[in-house]
Design goal:
By secondary structure, the chain is an alpha/beta fold. The chain has helices spanning 74-77, 83-90, 95-113, 126-131, 154-170, 192-204, 218-226, 245-255, 271-274, 277-289, 304-310, 328-338, 343-348, 350-353, 376-385, 395-409, 419-426, and strands at residues 11-14, 20-22, 43-46, 122-124, 139-144, 185-188, 208-213, 230-234, 259-260, 293-299, 315-323, 391-393, 436-441. Helices cover 37% and strands 14% of the residues. Helix 11 (304-310) links the parallel strand 10 and strand 11. Helix 3 packs across helix 6. Bound molecules: pyridoxal-5'-phosphate and zinc ion.
Length: 450
C-alpha cells in the first residue's frame, strides 16, 4: 500500500488549539495548554487505530464493526473500539492481559455494587409510543440505564478512567509509586456522577474526595458516606467569579495533585472513552431488532453523555435537550448560527459562545443544571454532522415527560433521566407517526434528588 494512503494514526488532539498527545500517554487528562486562566481547551481522539493485532484472541482486524459478541459485558464486547485498549496495547499489554484487566475491574465492581457492567435494555415502549400518536412502524425506543452500575449511565464513563489508572500504576507509568502512595481521586458532583465515582473508587480501594454544594444532603450524601468518600462542601463566596464553586474547589484539588475523576471531558478525556459503550450497545441492539433510528433526544448537563452518544449511536439526527432553567448549549448554538460558525470556528470563539448560565439554574431535572456545557464542542459536532439541533424544553414539558415516562414504562426513572423525552414532547408536531425515536432513561429516581 502506498504510504500516503495510510490512515493517520490515532492520537489525542485539542479541538481548540490542535495540541496533540500520543495515545500511549499514561494519564492524558486534558490539553497541556489548559491552565487556571484558560480552560477553553478540549481533547478528542482523532485518527484511526492502525494495527492489526497478531496476538489478538479474536484475530480480527480493528474496525468499526469489531464486536466480541460472546460477551454481555459492553467493555469486553466493544473492547477493540476503546481508546484504553489502544493505550494498553501500545504500552505492551497483550490482548489476553487487556481482557483480564477489564474482567478483574468488573469483578471488583460487582463485589461492591452487586453486579458489574452488562448490556442494558433497549426496547420500544408501546405505552409512550401510543400516547404520542406513533403508528406501528414508528415509536419511542428507550435505553434503560436505571439498573446500570450506580443507578445511571455515569459509571460507564469512569470505568475506562479507572482502567487507565490501574494500568499506569501497575506498569510504573504514573508519577506515584505503589498503591500506598496513590493520590486521591477528585470529582465535583452531588448526583449520579458522584455515586458512580465513589462506587468505582470503593471497588478499586482508591481514596476519593467529592466536592458538593454546601447545602447538599439526603440520599446521595448518605450513599457517598457509605462508600467511604470524603465529602467536601463548597460555598459560593462574595465576589467569586461566575461558575460552580464545586468545580473551582475540584480544580484546586487537582492542581494540588488529586486525580481528575470527573465526567467532564475537558477535565478528564478518558471519560469520553467508556461513555461510548452506551451508543455501541444501542447500535448492536437496533441491528438485532432490525430497525434504524431516525432521531435521538439526549438530555445535556455538562455534555459528556451527549458527546459520547454523538460519537457512538447510529442515529440519523441528534437533538440535544436542555431545560429553560439552564440552557447554555442552545444559547451557544443560536449565537453560532447567527455567526454562521462551523464547529471549528465555534471552538475558536469559545468565550463568545459558551459561558456560565447567568441566573441560578433551576429545574426538577436537577442533574442537567451544569451552568456550563463543558463538552459542548463534541455535542455541537454530533448535531452539525446529523443536521440536528438543540431543544430547550419548558419546565412543563420536563414535568410532563417525567410523568409520561414513568407511568407508561414502569421504569423507576428520575426527571433528569426522562429529560430527553421532554425534547420530543417539545417538537412532537414536527415528528412523523412512522419515525423511530430513541431516548435514554439515564438514571434511577432517588428521594431528595433527580
Ligand atoms: C441521570 C443523568 N442523566 C443525564 C445527565 C447528563 O449528563 P452530562 O452531564 O454528561 O450531560 C446526568 C448528569 O448528571 C445524569 O445524572
Ligand atoms: Zn488545547
Amino acid at each position: 500500500m502506498n504510504e500516503s494512503w495510510k490512515p493517520a494514526s490515532q492520537r489525542y488532539c485539542c479541538r481548540v488549539c490542535a495540541a496533540e498527545l500520543p495515545i500511549a500517554t499514561p494519564l492524558p487528562w486534558r490539553c497541556q495548554r489548559a491552565n487556571n486562566f484558560d480552560r477553553h481547551h478540549a481533547l478528542a481522539v482523532i485518527g484511526s487505530r492502525e494495527s492489526v493485532e497478531s496476538e489478538s484472541v479474536e484475530s480480527e482486524s480493528v474496525d468499526s464493526e469489531s464486536v466480541d459478541s460472546e460477551s454481555d459485558n459492553p467493555f469486553l464486547a466493544f473492547r477493540e473500539r476503546l481508546t484504553w485498549d489502544a493505550f494498553a496495547q501500545q504500552v505492551g499489554v497483550t490482548a489476553e492481559g487487556r481482557i483480564e484487566a477489564i474482567a478483574a475491574l468488573d469483578d471488583d465492581i460487582a463485589a461492591v455494587a452487586g453486579s458489574g457492567f452488562r448490556f442494558t435494555p433497549f426496547a420500544r415502549n408501546d405505552g409512550v409510543s401510543a400516547a404520542l400518536g406513533f403508528n406501528e412502524t414508528g415509536g419511542v425506543w428507550i435505553k434503560d440505564e436505571t439498573n446500570n452500575v450506580g443507578g445511571s449511565h455515569k459509571a460507564r464513563h469512569l470505568f475506562t478512567t479507572m482502567l487507565q489508572l490501574r494500568l499506569a500504576e501497575s506498569l510504573s507509568l504514573a508519577p506515584w509509586s505503589g498503591r500506598s502512595n496513590r493520590p486521591a481521586l477528585a470529582i465535583a458532583s452531588c448526583g449520579n456522577a458522584a455515586i458512580a465515582a465513589a462506587t468505582i473508587a470503593a471497588a478499586a480501594r482508591w481514596p476519593i474526595q467529592v466536592f458538593v454544594p454546601h447545602w447538599a444532603g439526603g440520599t446521595v450524601v448518605d450513599m457517598l458516606s457509605a462508600l467511604d468518600a470524603v465529602i467536601i462542601r463548597c460555598e459560593r463566596l462574595e465576589g467569586d467569579p461566575p461558575g460552580d464553586p464545586c468545580i473551582r474547589e475540584f480544580r484546586r484539588a487537582v492542581a494540588g495533585g488529586a486525580i481528575p475523576f470527573s465526567v467532564q471531558g475537558t477535565e478528564n478525556v478518558t471519560c469520553l472513552d467508556g461513555g461510548r459503550t452506551i451508543g455501541w450497545e444501542i447500535g448492536s441492539q437496533a441491528r438485532h431488532l432490525g430497525i434504524g433510528i431516525d432521531r435521538m433526544f439526549v438530555q445535556v448537563g455538562g455534555g459528556a453523555l451527549a458527546s459520547c452518544l454523538g460519537a457512538s449511536a447510529p442515529v440519523d439526527k441528534f437533538h440535544m435537550v436542555q431545560t429553560e432553567g439552564c440552557a447554555p448549549l442552545s444559547r451557544a448554538w443560536a449565537l453560532a448560527m447567527v455567526a454562521d460558525a462551523d464547529v471549528h470556528a465555534a471552538a475558536w470563539h469559545w468565550a463568545e459562545l459558551m459561558w456560565p448560565w447567568g441566573t441560578e439554574p433551576k429545574s426538577v431535572a436537577d442533574g442537567i443544571l451544569d451552568d456550563e456545557t463543558y463538552d459542548w464542542l463534541g455535542v455541537f459536532e454530533a448535531m452539525v454532522r446529523s443536521n440536528g439541533w438543540p431543544i430547550t424544553a419548558t419546565e412543563a414539558e420536563i414535568v410532563a415527560a417525567y410523568g409520561l415516562g414513568r407511568s407508561k414504562s414502569g421504569i423507576d426513572v428520575s426527571a433528569t433521566g426522562t429529560a430527553g423525552l421532554a425534547g420530543l414532547l417539545a417538537i412532537i408536531e414536527q415528528i412523523g407517526p412512522d419515525e423511530r425515536v430513541a431516548v435514554v432513561f439515564s438514571g434511577v429516581e432517588r428521594p431528595g434528588t433527580s
